[in-house]
Design a protein that fits this description.
By secondary structure, this protein is an alpha+beta fold. Helices cover 54% and strands 20% of the residues. The strands form four sheets. Strands 2-1-5-4-3 form a five-stranded antiparallel beta sheet. Strands 7-6-10-9-8 form a five-stranded antiparallel beta sheet, sandwiched between helices. Strands 12-14-15-17-16 form a five-stranded mixed beta sheet, with helices on one face. It catalyses: ATP + protein L-histidine = ADP + protein N-phospho-L-histidine.
C-alpha cells in the first residue's frame, strides 16, 4: 500500500513538473477549457437531474389522471359485468396515449378482469403495487425499458383496482437529446474559450517572449540591445529593470575587456621580451622542476620544449647540483644565485653559461626565475685569442731569432762561404716572416681583397705550375713523393697572382701534415662547366669535430699542432676567401688518419 502511494506521488510530481514546463498560452488554454468542461459537467448533471425530476412528475400526474378517469369509467361495466366495455376502455387508453405501455384491471380478490397484453398476462405483475388508501406508483424494469406502474382503486378498492404502465423511455430520450445539445454547447464554449485564452495568452506572453528574445540577443554578445516593451505593468517594469541591468553589465564587461586587453597587451609585451631575449630564461618550482622556458633556453639545451618542461633543472647542471639544491631549499627568499657553470645539453655536449637565479612569489607559491647566458662561444674565442697571440708571437719571434743568430754568427765568421750560407738562411727566415705578414695583410683586407682582384684570361695549368715552383726546393728535400697530373689545359678568367697564392697555401698545408714517405698529388681534371683543381695528400687527415672549423681564422686543430707542425691558422682561410672571389668554393674530402683532398672548380670562361 505504501509503495503504491509513493508511486502515485511520484507520478503526480512528474505531472506537475510537465505542466510547469507548458507555455503561458497553453496553461491559459488548459485552464479555460478545464473550467468550461467542469462547469459544463456540473451544469449538465444538475439540469439533467432537474429535467428528469420534472418530466417524471409530469408523467406521474398524467398517469394518475388516466388511472383515476379509467377507474371512474370502469365502475358501471364492472358492476354490470360488461367485459367488452372494460376491454374497449383499456384498449382505447393504450392506443390514445403514447406513453401507455399496458393497462389491466383486477377485481377485489386480485384476479385479472381485462388486460392489453397480446401474449398473455405476465405472471410477474400479479399482486404488484396494490392501491391501498389511494393511488400508488412503482418503477419497474422491464424488457421494454423502465415503466412506472400507477395503480388506482375502484370504489375505494371494493370493486378492484386499475393499473396503467407509463413508459419512461421518452424521458431518457429527451434527456439524451438535451445532454447532446448541452455537450455541443459546451464544446462550442470550449472552442471559443480556447481561442479567447490563446489570444489572452498571446497578449500576456508576447512581452515575456520579447524579453526572452532580448535576453538571448544580449547573451550572444550584443550588449547594446534593449527590450522595447511600452507597458507600466509588471512585465514592463521587469523589462525596464532588465535594460538597466544590461546597461550595467555591458559597462562592467567593457571595463573588464578593457582591463583584460591591457593585461593581455602587457603579457604579450613581456612574452615578446622573454621570447626575444638572447639569454635562456626558465621558471622553476621549489623542487627544481622546469615549468617554463623561452626559445633561447631551448636552443641552448638543443632539445624540444616538451622534453624540457617537467624535467629537473639539476639534469643540466650535474656538476653543481648540490649548490643549486642548496639555493632552492634556502629559507632566504631575498638571496640570489650567480655563477659560471658547465651546462650539459641533450646531446651530452658541455657548454659554459652564466646562471643567474632569483625567487618570486606567484599565486602563493615560490617560483625561481633562472637566466642562462651562453658564453661557450666567448670562452672559445678567448681561448682562440690566447692561442692566436701565442701562435703569432711564436711565429714572428722564430724568424727574428733565426735571423739574429745567423747575422751575429756571420759577423764573426771569417770563412766567406760559411758566412754566405748563414746569411742565406737569414734571408729564408726573413722570407718566412714576410709570408706570415702577407697572410695577416690578406686577412686584414678581408672582403676588400676580393673586390681588388685583377681577373684576366690565363692558363689554369700554368697557375698550378707556378704554385708548385714556389716549393721546388722544399719538395725535393721533403722525402715526400709529389705527383703532378694535368688534364687538357684551359684558359680561365682569374687573378693569377692571388690564385697561385691560394694554391701555395693548399700545397704548404699538404706538406706540413704529410709524414715522410707520404704522397702528395697536385693536378687538374675536367668537370662539367669548368676545371677541377685539387691537392691530395696521405697526411694525418681531419677529424669530424675539426672539419666544421678548418676554414675559421687562426683555427688550429689543437694547441700542440702549433708546435709540431707550425703555421698560424690562416692558410685555409685565405685560400677559401680567394677562391670564393673566383666564383667558386673550396671543398675538402678527408678521412682521419688517411689523408685529405682539397679541391675547387674554376668555371670556364663561357660560363663565368
Amino acid at each position: 500500500m505504501k509503495n503504491g502511494s509513493c508511486h502515485l506521488e511520484t507520478k503526480l510530481r512528474g505531472l506537475v513538473s510537465d505542466i510547469d514546463n507548458f507555455s503561458i498560452r497553453t496553461k491559459m488554454i488548459l485552464t479555460v477549457v478545464g473550467i468550461i468542461l467542469i462547469l459544463g459537467i456540473l451544469m449538465g448533471s444538475y439540469l439533467n437531474l432537474v429535467q428528469t425530476s420534472m418530466m417524471s412528475a409530469e408523467l406521474d400526474e398524467k398517469g394518475i389522471s388516466i388511472t383515476r378517469n379509467l377507474a371512474e369509467n370502469s365502475i358501471n361495466p364492472i358492476l354490470t359485468d360488461n367485459q367488452v366495455r372494460l376491454q374497449w376502455l383499456i384498449e382505447t387508453i393504450r392506443d390514445s396515449e403514447s406513453e401507455v405501455v399496458y393497462v389491466f384491471i383486477a377485481d377485489e380478490q386480485g384476479d385479472i378482469l381485462v388486460h392489453t397484453f397480446q401474449d398473455g398476462f405476465p405472471i410477474d405483475l400479479y399482486s404488484i403495487n396494490p392501491a391501498i388508501g389511494g393511488s400508488s406508483i412503482m418503477l419497474l424494469d422491464t424488457e421494454v425499458g423502465y415503466v412506472r406502474d400507477i395503480s388506482y382503486p375502484i370504489l375505494e378498492g371494493k370493486a378492484g383496482e386499475v393499473h396503467v404502465g407509463m413508459s419512461q423511455e421518452h424521458i431518457r430520450s429527451n434527456v439524451d437529446k438535451f445532454t447532446i445539445s448541452l455537450g455541443l454547447f459546451v464544446l462550442m464554449l470550449m472552442f471559443i474559450g480556447s481561442n479567447v485564452a490563446y489570444f489572452a495568452g498571446s497578449v500576456v506572453s508576447r512581452p515575456i517572449l520579447e524579453l526572452k528574445e532580448g535576453v538571448e540577443i544580449f547573451g550572444e554578445g550584443d550588449l547594446d540591445h534593449k527590450v522595447m516593451i511600452n507597458s507600466n505593468n509588471e512585465v514592463g517594469q521587469l523589462a525596464n529593470s532588465f535594460n538597466d541591468m544590461a546597461d550595467h553589465i555591458g559597462y562592467l564587461i567593457k571595463e573588464k575587456e578593457k582591463v583584460a586587453k591591457e593585461v593581455l597587451e602587457t603579457r604579450n609585451y613581456l612574452t615578446k621580451i622573454v621570447s626575444g631575449s638572447l639569454d635562456g630564461i626558465a621558471v622553476i618550482d621549489d623542487g627544481g622542476e622546469v615549468e617554463f622556458v623561452n626559445d633561447s633556453f631551448i636552443r641552448i639545451a638543443r632539445s624540444g620544449k616538451e622534453w624540457i618542461i617537467g624535467s629537473s633543472i639539476y639534469s643540466f647542471f650535474q656538476e653543481k647540483e648540490d649548490e643549486l639544491r642548496s639555493f632552492l631549499t634556502s629559507a632566504d627568499r631575498n638571496a640570489t644565485f650567480m655563477k659560471e657553470l658547465n651546462f650539459t645539453d641533450m646531446d651530452g655536449r658541455l657548454k659554459v653559461v652564466i646562471l643567474s637565479m632569483g625567487s618570486v612569489e606567484y599565486r602563493g607559491e615560490i617560483k625561481y626565475v633562472a637566466v642562462a647566458k651562453d658564453i661557450t662561444e666567448i670562452k672559445r674565442l678567448e681561448q682562440t685569442k690566447a692561442n692566436i697571440i701565442a701562435n703569432i708571437s711564436h711565429e714572428l719571434r722564430t724568424p727574428l731569432n733565426i735571423m739574429k743568430g745567423y747575422v751575429e754568427i756571420s759577423m764573426e765568421e771569417q770563412d766567406s762561404e760559411k758566412r754566405y750560407s748563414y746569411l742565406n738562411r737569414s734571408l729564408k727566415a726573413l722570407d718566412r716572416q714576410n709570408i706570415m705578414i702577407q697572410d695577416l695583410l690578406e686577412i686584414a683586407r678581408g672582403e676588400d681583397g676580393v673586390h681588388d682582384m685583377d681577373l684576366v684570361m690565363t692558363s689554369i695549368n700554368g697557375i698550378v705550375e707556378m704554385a708548385c715552383k714556389v716549393f721546388n726546393g722544399k719538395l725535393s728535400t721533403s722525402d715526400i713523393e709529389v705527383m703532378k697530373k694535368f688534364s687538357e689545359d684551359k684558359h680561365v678568367k682569374a687573378d693569377p697572382e692571388k690564385l697561385t697564392y691560394a694554391l701555395t697555401k693548399l700545397i704548404d698545408n699538404a706538406l706540413k701534415f704529410t709524414e715522410k714517405g707520404g704522397l702528395i698529388e697536385i693536378g687538374t681534371s675536367p668537370v662539367d662547366g669548368g676545371t677541377r683543381v685539387y691537392v691530395k695528400d696521405t697526411g694525418i687527415g681531419i677529424s669530424e669535430n675539426d672539419m666544421e672549423h678548418i676554414f675559421d681564422r687562426f683555427y688550429q686543430v689543437d694547441s700542440s699542432s702549433t708546435r709540431k707542425f707550425g703555421g698560424n691558422g690562416l692558410g685555409l682561410t685565405i685560400a677559401s676567401s680567394i677562391i670564393a672571389g673566383h666564383n667558386s668554393r673550396l671543398l675538402v674530402i678527408s678521412e682521419y688518419g688517411k689523408g685529405s683532398t682539397f679541391y675547387f672548380v674554376i668555371p670556364d670562361h663561357s660560363d663565368h
